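User: I'm writing a short methods note and want a consistent example. For Calcineurin-like phosphoesterase domain-containing protein, I'll paste the sequence; you return only the structure tokens, no commentary, since I'll be parsing the reply automatically.
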Amino acid sequence: MRYALFADLHSSVADTAAVLANIRRLAPDAHLFCLGDVHECHVGKKRAKRYSFESLSLVVTLDDDFLKLIDFKTLLGNQEERILSLVPPHLSPVIDALRDCPRKQRIEGALLIHGDQLSWSRDFLPDLSQQREPLLFFGHSHIRGLFRNGIAKPSPLGQTLSIKGGRYAVNLGPVMFEREWCLYDSEQQTIVFYQAK
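Assistant:
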């Protein structure tokens, strides 16, 4: 089975539309899955600790054009976690639907997470020393990357890369600005990084 995996949309209509169109053109049979940070939270991490809710629009923009694009499964990222901590239940059906999204998901041969669940170095490198899964996909840092047994490998665009033998971790790169996504073929055990125009 093939999976189109992407992350870090941050409410970007144009970038999300471009990536989804690219997926439909290159891999129309692929199952779509977002690894979190679909929405952009307008309240920063520090401010959230003392934030008193006033209105939904001060926390998140729920643009109709953007919401029309969201027809795929998603994980909760740190942006959604913060939004859910700030927005009272039953105020927005869109936000309430997020409450049922998982933080982790297993698909064929792989674990999907949002990368805020990892520790990161100051150089934005993930600490993969505790990785036990043979294949891990994540987003969060906005930096595309491929790691084999914790060691960074080249992650060129448009090339089919084998993920057989060893433990692999795949940082998808962001939809926002970079328009990046990854095609995972669970039968062939390959990935391809793409960037929509």
